[in-house]
Model the fold of this input.
Amino acid sequence: MTDARPPYAGTRYPRIAELKAFTDYIATGWGTEPVPANPVAGAAEAAAEHRRRLSERLPGETVVVHSGTAPTRNDDNEYPFRADSDFVWLTGCQAEGAALVMTPRPGGHDARLYLPPPFRPGETGFFRDMNHGELWVGASPGLPAWAEALQIDVEPLKTLDDVNLKGALTIQTVNPNFAADHDLETSTLLDRHLSVLRMVKDAWEIEQMRLAVDTTVAGFAEVAREIPRAIRDGLGERWLQGTFDRHARTHGNGVGYTTIVGSGSHAPILHWTRCDGPVLPDATLLLDMGVEADSLYTADVTRTLPASGTFSAQQREIHDLVEKAHRAGMAHVRPGTKYLDFHFAAMEVVAQGLHDWGLLPVSVDESLSPEGQYHRRYLACGIGHHLGLDVHDCSHAEYEEYMDADLEPGVVMTVEPGIYFHANDLTLPPELRGIGVRLEDDLLVTETGAEVLSDALPIDAAGIEAWTQARLREAP
Done:
C-alpha cells in the first residue's frame, strides 16, 4: 500500500487519462456486441417522404438540420436529451449531436446524416467522456447500424468540417456552437416551410397520434384511481402528477409537456405545473396531460374531474357552459372551414354564458368585438392549436398559413375551451372564486368532418361523474 494521492484520484475531472499504465490497461480486455439502431417502425420510410416534400419546396437550396444537444441542468449535470422535432421529422433518428445535410441535385436533393461515432473501448472518450463515453452511459449503435436502419448515407460528424455549408438554410433552434462552427445563419424561411409541411399528417403520423392519445386516455384512468390515496394520505397533486409521468415513461417516451394537476383554486391557473398543493375532496381537479410516444408524437388532453365523484351545483353549471362551448368549437372542425372558426364559435358561447350570469360589464357584441374582449378575463388563452411532434405544433408558420388557413384532411388539432375563475378575482361573487374547468380533445380532420381521437373520455358532466366514480371504485 502507498499513501500517495495522485491528482487523478477523483472522478470529477478524469485526469487519470494522463496515466499510461491506466490507459493501456483499460483499452484492452473488453468484449464487444453490436448494438442495433432501432428507430420506431415505419419512421425511416416516413422520414424519406418528408424529405422529398421539403425538397420540392426548396429546390436548389442546401438544408442543414441539427438534432440538438442536451442543455445543462446544473453544474455538470444535463437534462435528458430530446431530439429536435424537425430533425426527427426529416430523419426518424433521435441521436444527440447529429446533423442532416440535404444538398441540391437535378430533380431533388441528396441527403446525408452526420453522426458522432460512439466512444468504443480503446478510445479515450470511452472512459473520459462522462456524458457520451460508453463506460458511463452504455453502448450505442455505430454508424453502419444507423445507415442500415434509416436507409440513408451516414458519415462521422467530424467529416462535416470539410463540407462547404456557406449559404445553407438551417433552423432557428440549431445548436449555437454548431451554427458558428459551420458559418450557418438560422433561417425563418426553413422553419416556416417545415411548420407548414408538418401541419398535414400522413398515415404513419396519424397512427402515432392515435397511439399517443390511447396511451394518454389509459393514463387518465391510472390517475383517477389514485385520487383517494392522494387525499387520504396527504400526497396531493404531486402524487397524481407523478402517477401520470410514470405511466407516460413506462408506455411511451415520457410526457409530451409538463403535466398539469390543479385542485381547487389551482385549477384556474393555466399552467399550474408546480403541483405542490393538496387534492381537495370537494373541489374540481383539472388534469391536462399527454403521453409522448416513442416516436415523439404527443397527445394533449384535458378533463376536469370532481374529486369526490360528483360535481357541486356551481361546478356543474360552469362545466355545462364549457361543454357547450367545446361542442360548438368541435362542430367547426371540418375540411374547408377556416382554422379560426372553431375558436370564434367557442368564444361566442363563453361570452354569452358569462353575460347571462351578469359577469360582463358590456353586451355580448361589445365583448366579442376586437376592441372589447372583456370575456377573455376569464379565458385568456386561445381555444386550441395544432398537435404533433410538438404539443403546440407548427408554431413557426406565418399567420396566414396557420390562423387564416383552411382546414384539410390530415390536420390534427386540439379544441380546449375553459373558464377560469381565479380565487383572488374580486369581480366574481365569492361562490364562483377558485373554480376552473377545461375540456380538451384531440381531433383529426377527415375527408367528411373530424374524428375525435380522445372520445374514449366523456365530456358531459354526467358522463364524467360516472367515469370518475367507476375509477374511484377501482382505487387501491
Observations:
- The first helix runs from residue 20 to 26.
- The chain has 16 helices and 18 strands.
